[in-house]
Amino acid sequence: MPTDPVLVVHGGAWAMPDDMVDAHLRGVNNAISTGWRVLDRGGSALDAVEEAVVIMEDDETFDAGRGSFLNRDGRVQLDALIMDGATLRAGGVGCVEHLRNPVRAARKILSESPHVYFVAEGAEKFAAERGIALCKNEELVIPREVERLHSYQAELAKRTQSQDGNDLFAGSPDDVTISHDTVGAIALDCNGNIAAATSTGGTLNKAPGRLGDSSLIGCGCYADNESAAASTTGWGEPIMKLVLAKWTADRIAAGNLPEWSAQEAMNYLKQRVNGHGGIIVLSRDGHFGIAHNTPRMAWAYKTVKKHDAGILRES
């Protein structure tokens, strides 16, 4: 029996300033429009989340694809994961530097490899062998992020000197005023299958080779037809420690509503490891939840009856 499709996307959770709200709203709405066209013509949830995430990877507003945060060496390193709830197949890439759309490579891994995860040069080689064009890392870097990195490193140097260099966690991304614009999408298609995808450039000034939650199965992204699809955004290390996307899906499998489970995930994140971020989650019956514990979160959703988007404010 056909089901009514649902698509939900997010574009970051942090203390988003007023002058960035419109760009985020445009970005998530563009992603919804593109992903919905897939679902509306009977396409799969997997295709829908891939296409929605590509739109946000191509939008310099977000921390994904071109325009992402730079690592400590001034380079873009990208991570992404996509997962099919019908089969539990997944594809992920980590620390790639020459792919404009890492979610495309992740999809190739899901569809054309017995493996789940490729990193760095191995991921890029796999993608290139399957027709995905590579780019120069410089093509992913924009002036805004060069300036942001230099300003952050200068401030960090002042703070470290004032603390006699003894602050082990100097520069840790636990400040909600630092952008966490990871992007993600979750979908339910007309065949009753769900899927999820998440993509990120990681944290500002991260150590080269650092991997966050976004591309790790069950941490920043998860999908299982028997529970839920989920995608997270925010400070990656605490989210990883809790395997938060899978934790949330398990709450739904136990009979809880997605709206409740999403909020409980944010409470758990804060109370257990003092983490911050946001989550979107969708069950196979079409119910979804959106929650965050940061000042703002960018989101959008569309069903056959309603389309809405906004910048959620912390309650």
Q: What is the gist of this entry?
A:
By secondary structure, the protein is an alpha+beta fold.
What does the model show?
- The protein has a single domain (6-313), classed as Glutamine Phosphoribosylpyrophosphate, subunit 1, domain 1.
- The strands form 2 sheets. Strands 4-3-2-6-5-1-11-12 form an 8-stranded mixed β-sheet. It has a 4-stranded antiparallel β-sheet with strand order 7-8-9-10, with helices on one face.
- It is built from 8 helices and 12 strands.
- The longest helix has 20 residues, at 21-40.
- The protein is 34% helix and 23% strand.
- Residues 165-171 have low confidence and may be disordered.
- Strand 5 (183-188) and strand 6 (194-200) form a beta hairpin.
- It is an alpha+beta fold.
Keywords:
315 residues, alpha+beta, Glutamine Phosphoribosylpyrophosphate, subunit 1, domain 1, 8-stranded mixed beta sheet, 4-stranded antiparallel beta sheet, 8 helices
Q: Cα distance, first to last residue?
A: 38 Å
Q: Return the average pLDDT rounded to an integer.
A: 93
Number of helices: 8
Beta-strand fraction estimate = 15-25%
Might you state the CATH topology name? Glutamine Phosphoribosylpyrophosphate, subunit 1, domain 1
CATH class: Alpha Beta
Helix fraction bin:
25-40%
Compute the gyration radius: what is it? Answer: 18 Å
Oligomer: single chain
Instruction: Tell me what the CATH architecture is.
Output: 4-Layer Sandwich
CATH H-level superfamily title: (Glycosyl)asparaginase
Helix and strand sequence: EHHEEHEHHEEEEHHHEEEE
Largest sheet: 8 strands, mixed
